[in-house]
Amino acid sequence: MSEHQRMAARQPAARRRTRTEAGEVNTVPGIDNERELVTRLRRVNLDLLPILHELLRARSVTRAARAFNMTQPAVSRALRQLRAAFDDPLLVSTGREARLSSRAEALAEPLHRALGELDLLLRPARPFDPASEAARFMITTADYVTQLLAPILAAICTVEAPHVVLEFTEPGVRSAEDLARIDFMIGPRAFGETLGKRVGVMPLWRDDVVCIAAAANRSVPARITAGQFRDLRQVGFQAGRRASPDIRALLQPTSALETGLVCTVPNFLVLGAIVETSDCVALVPRKVAQELVRSRPLRIVELVYPHKRLFIDAYWSLAASGKRGHAWFRSVLGRAAARLA
Questions:
Q1: In the Cβ-directed half-sphere of 310, how many Cα atoms lie within 13 Å?
Q2: For the chain (length 341 residues), average pLDDT per consecutive 10?
Q3: DSSP annotation string for 235-284
Q4: Chosen CATH of 44-122 out of 3.30.420.40, 3.30.420.10, 1.10.10.200, 1.10.10.10
């Protein structure tokens, strides 16, 4: 350790000094400063500071009492307490007028600023105004949820929140820590329940899994059992190479039936294009199937299987609940989901 470092280490934390690039010397705040501040604050009734401010402005006990709708004796008692706390007369009578002591004159401007800062600090936050405020929300979800929700959310924001930006990203949440890096994750309840207790949740809609087949593929009946599905060539959704079988089961309750996969893709909507031009079938949420059959020559095949129900929920880290506009956007998500019910 150099001599300079040993000398710095011997200085009390509250009095250590640093030099800026411009050559200015700053005192580094330390724990001693905080202790001294607490001691000084205990000597003063902070409720009296607004009265002191008015006394310094009006230079009159009578006018200060009128301003606070208080009795003159009550303000006089407050002034006595303030004089004791500051060890200074503050207001000095000179006949019918009063003048400020030197200490009072020095206090006037810092007190005005401090009360203004305290007002900002303690004032309740105003509600988020979507019509004028800007905000960005990141939503991680599957592509079909994006296709269902994004047009509705964008339409709502166009009318109500023109400065709000929506960012949809592909699924990547595996833990509560991952969830804390985004605003919302939308996915199956069975998976969301693994994220822990420090998570907010809002149910969005119910769904179930069906099979899709090419409209021209008449070898697939209108209803199909689990055994019949296993015997067919299949394409399926794969939630990333990192996804374990347990995670896949939570995301896709029918994944155990996909034993004859000849192709996997990371997007639900691509499955329709593959099924349309092949003899393959695929298992998808019903809302996905309904979207696909509107635009492609496909048909919905009902799946006879007990474990095909899906509950789609929105999840967020409780630490993000205080983000400006977060509560408003949760209400917007609920309204958008209601249109899909």
A1: 25
A2: 44 41 44 71 82 88 89 91 90 82 90 84 82 95 94 97 95 85 92 88 95 95 96 87 65 88 92 96 95 95 94 92 92 95 79
A3: EEE---TT--HHHHHHH-TTGGG--SEEEEES-HHHHHHHHHTSS-BEEE
A4: 1.10.10.10
Determine the 3-state secondary structure of 45 from DSSP.
Answer: coil
CA–CA gap between residue 326 and residue 333 (Å, rounded): 11
pLDDT value at residue 321: 84
Give the pLDDT confidence score for residue 27 in this predicted structure: 44
What local confidence, expressed as pLDDT, does residue 15 receive? 39
DSSP string, 79-91: HHHHHHHHTS--E
Is 207-310 CATH 3.40.190.10?
yes
The residue behind tokens 């230079």 is 59
Superfamily of domain 135-204+312-340 in the CATH hierarchy: Periplasmic binding protein-like II (3.40.190.10)
Parallel, antiparallel or unpaired: strands 223-225 and 135-140: unpaired
